[in-house]
Amino acid sequence: MKYLFLLLIFLGAPAMANSQLxxxxxxxxxxxxxxxxxxxxxxxxxxxxxxxxxxxxVEYLEPQPHGSAxxxxxxxxxxxxxxxxxxxxxxxxxCMADYYHAYFSATDVITALFSGVPExxxxxxxxxxxEFDPRVDKIRGPGSIDxxxxxxxxxxxxxxxxxxxxxxxIGETEPEHVGP
Length: 180
Description:
alpha+beta
């Protein structure tokens, strides 16, 4: 019985976030998904770290969504207090047909590279939370794909999309639907 318990803990480990940053990102994504427009628009925001009387804490801030199913502003520097340190960003990928919801877009990767902090993404189809940390993950790492996406004028663009690492799951899924 003791070994069965240890085996269950070991098998469940990949679904458990192992840092305060990852736990906060998962909670932020869960809250964003449950917002009034969380199944219609991408939501996202900043993960900030700060020292308090109770120790170091990581919190999340969500700027308002653009009103777009495929884009959201995750950084809004004027929301940061003087003692805030940017430690990550997060956003939702809606469960839309013909959309690479399980992969980080080129914009997502650029955001992580330029900010130097991890980007977290919720795939609403599976409930999986993915992390892409430019200090650890490779753009052409495990699980990445070559994809063809539509450009601003309907043209087909070849892009390489990383999946990052799955660091948790919110325990909820959404059915695939037709996008905007």
